[in-house]
Amino acid sequence: MDSARNLTGQFLLAMPGIGDPRFDRAVIAMCAHDAEGALGIGIGATIAGVGLHTVLQQLEIELGVAPDVPVHFGGPVEPRRGFVVHALDWAGQDTIEVVGHAGALWALSGTTDVLKAIAAGRGPSRWLVALGYAGWGEGQLDGEMTRHGWLNVPGDLDLLYGCDAEGRWEAGFASAGIDSRLLANETGWA
């Protein structure tokens, strides 16, 4: 992997016609990308009928002050495994800081301690919950980035926390100066 092409701390935006319906209009917050592979959390769609209260109740965590916000479709890998993408003002046992080219941007936690903290009102100041993740093996994402399928844009906390999931895809393209309505489903030949 070319270190200049490290996508950690960036967002991947699915191009129209990506060819995999699981990633149609996907926005992936890239949490790790190195020579061994890549891992990202989908933040561009929510799971119909699943809110945070449902997840907390299944884990037998008291609801406390936790709002019943939608849960994001994090990706097709391990869809029953939960993740919390959150601000850097909270850290638990397994929390990793996502460090991009501009430094630490957000954190990722995957154990129940962050959910318990959120429910108790002692969690991170900003967060979102997702089930599943998007994962790529060694060199797989690097290969995908050479073909029509993904556009990477810098990580942006306003896009991460200040935008509804349904609007993130368009907002991501707009952050790159691209009107998503003008994108074609196929590439052409010259």
TrEMBL record:
Pfam families referenced in this protein's UniProt entry, alphabetically: DUF179
Gene3D superfamilies: VC0467-like (3.40.1740.10)
Family affiliation: Belongs to the UPF0301 (AlgH) family.
The name this protein goes by in its record: UPF0301 protein SIL82_11070
Organism: Sphingomonas echinoides
